[in-house]
Every structure is written in structure tokens, then in C-alpha cells.
């Protein structure tokens, strides 16, 4: 009997652990949805401030705004979700929302560089510690140079109009009825700017809860070393980047894993490049979820344009021009990490560029 009690206790404990893992995810999903509604409700009141005082009126300054916000929040996903909510509130145009999401991806790359800097302070091989972060910025920046104009052209010419999204509006309205009961009392007592900031706080909290619900991935404690043949194949690393970013729901986390792996010798730059290209494709999934929850076809179209550009461009590079692309990126990486002066110049450029764009 004691044996059965122990077995039953073990099963009960496992179920309790699973429930404890699921509950933060459910709470995070609810807060994520609530935050989108709160941001949308507050963003309308901020339209004069954004357009007149901050002069966010074109693609360039919207790109800079998303870039800077991702720097401040140290994550790109919340900023991309905020951009979709602001589009739904008519605070941004589709082109501006597209540019702001692009900026959020560029800003998120700096988080990986911060991780590398922390490792560099205690590592002997500082160059290896910084490789993943610098590559993340270089790869995201180089792909965005092409994705940004192509994506804007896709939106302007309505090339994705064949995708039927008419049912989203009604679906979003039905779900919005329940949110209205929670948001209307808040809107009655809080000014628009406070409501917007509350939504930003809620969305950051929701992503923190998502992190608690997701499984912990530690590739250094797995059989990663046994697949050393596969990691030298760009298509495999591309798919691995796509998969891990889907699991972690954060490109900062999935690419951040590369820093300790590089330091321990598991990964080299030729492996990292294809991996980051894959991560930059699936990183838009959470933003697509935000657009669907808001029930705004325009938001879904903006995110789909990003995903199409990232997927097509990255696959073309991996399948047809990887060696040339890898050599060009490696040349830039070698120059940046050649001496402290070059690295400081690179870092200053990445920090000042979004400021300049926002002021345009």
C-alpha cells in the first residue's frame, strides 16, 4: 500500500508541477490581451503628442522610435506589440507601424550584445564573447536594409490582398466586449497617457510571466556536442534558429543562448549566421498573435509583410548566397572587433542612429 501511495504522490506532484508551469502562461496570455486593449485605449489620446510634439510623422522617425523603445525596454517583442496596438488606435499608419516593428527588431539585437559584454568582463577571450551580439546587429541591420523598402512596397501595392482577413474584425469585436468591462472604469479615472503607460507595464509583465511558463533550454547540458556535423550545415542552423525562437517567443533569448555556447566552443561564426537568420523569421510570431487578438486586418497585414520579407530574403541567402554573405559579414565583424576604437565607433553608431532617425 505504501508503494501505491508513493506512486500516487509522485503523480500528484508531477501534475502540480505542470499546473504551476501552465498558470503563469495563462495569466501572461490574459495580461497580454488586456495590455493590448489598454494601450489601444490610451494611444488615441496620445496621437497629438506623437504627431505634433514628438513629430513622429514618417517612416524614418517611426523606425527610430521603435529602435529607441527596444533599447529602453531591452526587448523587441513588447515594442512590436505596442506598434500594432497604436496602429489599431489609428495613432500610426500601416507604413509607420511596419517601420516601428523593424526598429524594435534592431533594438532587440542590442540585448544580445549586452549579454556578450557581461561575458567579456570575466572571459579571457573577449572577442568570442562579443561575436554573437555584433553578428546579431549586423545581420538584422543588413536584412532590414532590404526588408524595409520591400515591405513598404508590399503594403503600398497591396500584394497580400489575396489573404482573406475580413473575419478578424468581428472576431476582435466579440473578444473586445469582455475587455471593455475592465478598461472602461480605468479610462474613466486615468488620462490617456497614464492609460498608455499602464498598458506598457502590463505587457512587460505578461512577457515576464510567459518566460516563467516556458521550458528552460540549456543546450550545454544536452547532447548538443553529438550533432557537431549538423551545426556546420546552414539549412539546419537556420531551422534551429526558427524552432528555438518559436519556443522561447523571444529573439533576445534564443540568440542570447549563442553567447555561452560560443564561449564554450560549441558555436562558431559560420554556424551563428544561419541561426540568427532563422531566429529573425520566427520572432514575428508573437506580434502576429497581438494583431490577431486586436482583430485588426491592417495589423495582421503589416506583420505578414515582415514575415514574408524575412523568410524569403533569409532563405535566398541560406540556399543560394551563403558563402558570399558569410564572407561579407565576417569581414565587417573582423573590422569591428579588431581593436577597441573600432568597437566603440560601431557601438556609438548603433546608439546614435535611432536618435538621429527620430529627430528627422
Give your account of this protein's structure.
By secondary structure, this protein is mainly alpha-helical. Helix content is 82%, strand content 0%. The protein has helices at residues 2-53, 59-73, 77-88, 94-122, 126-157, 166-189, 192-213, 234-248, 251-256, 258-263, 269-282, 285-294, 297-320, 322-336, 340-359. The longest helix is centred in the first third of the chain and has 52 residues, at 2-53. It starts with a helix and ends with a helix.
Residues in helices, as a percent range: over 70%
What radius of gyration results from the CA coordinates? 22 Å
**Quaternary structure:** single chain
Task: Please trace the helix and strand order, writing H or E for each element.
Answer: HHHHHHHHHHHHHHH
Shape: globular
Termini separation (Å)? 76 Å
Count up the helices: 15
Number of strands: 0
Stretches where pLDDT is under 50 for at least 5 consecutive residues are: 1-5, 219-225
pLDDT averaged residue by residue: 78
Instruction: State the major sheet.
Output: none
Class from helix and strand fractions = mainly alpha
Estimate the strand proportion: under 5%
Keywords, separated by commas or semicolons:
360 residues; mainly alpha; 15 helices; 82% helix; globular
Please write out the topology.
Elements: H1 2-53, H2 59-73, H3 77-88, H4 94-122, H5 126-157, H6 166-189, H7 192-213, H8 234-248, H9 251-256, H10 258-263, H11 269-282, H12 285-294, H13 297-320, H14 322-336, H15 340-359
Structure at a glance:
The protein is mainly α. The protein contains 15 helices and no strands. It has helices spanning 2-53, 59-73, 77-88, 94-122, 126-157, 166-189, 192-213, 234-248, 251-256, 258-263, 269-282, 285-294, 297-320, 322-336, 340-359.
